[in-house]
Give the backbone structure.
Amino acid sequence: MSRLCVGIDIAKRTFVAALWHGDTGQELGEFPNTPAGFAQWLQATQQATGSLPGDAWSLVLEPTGGYELAFALFAYEQGIRVSRPNPKQVRDFARGLGQRAKTDRLDALLLARYAAERKPSRWAPLAREVSELESLLERQRELEAMVAQERRRQQALARRPGVAARVPESLQQVIESLEGALKEVQEAIREQLEQHPQLQAEAKQLQQVPGVGARNVLWLLVLVRRWHTLTEGKGAAKGLVAFAGLDPRTHESGTSVRGRGTISRMGDRRIRPQLYMGALGGVKGNNPLRAFYQRLVKKGKAKKLALVACARKILVWAWAVYRDQTEFRKSTCQAEPAA
């Protein structure tokens, strides 16, 4: 049975759907980004394809600020293979085809063709308790950023003459309100962990890894849970490193071009600073991470690059601990590759 390739270009209120058959595309039209619109799309697609079963479909849609998640979950529940590739990969694919114009219709056709030619990896939703934890962590991050921003404004105004008295008062009120909201979210995170002892146990287990502490453990837990879901627990550490965007990217050509090495930055941008700061603190202790860091520096590796390598190492060890449901020990360090 041939696989049906579907592309969805989705926005806040509507989405455009297209199919790809062999070397040609077919537009399906525009639908409301609502449950009723999802049902209309499903009916239109079945009519256009002779009612192929859902497991014969490959559907691709790009992450669009979360507007795509309800539709992705709807399609997943129909048994359809859903993919949410990195937008940069899709843009590179479009450039490779020489596509210059950009419309919703063309984007839907492009995504359908991408599904046919690139066969992107499958997406699956997180368990509800993990998804809820992630949303709370994201809100905590937003509130922390807003508090820091308002405090910088407060400090700058303190040095300026001619400021109306109401301005610093307003700033203080906003800061207090934000700090109150932040405490409420932090309490909600604590309650979420208490209501789900498995999450608590997994977080405690991950904190055995050098470089993992209270500030980054929950973000790391969400990441390894997502990787476990996407790979059905069979994913490799090297794949997880790439998924987080920490995989090395070399820049060489012939004998004369030797660009500075960097990382791909293709994955979730929220986790990389968490891991880097964990590495920065972790190498100060008496642990295997410090020994790994010192070996790299002695070999001539720049300190910043060595810290990035330590961030990768933290992720590799964390995956080994989570995957095998075991304690962190020296055998974990020896068993897992540097990635």
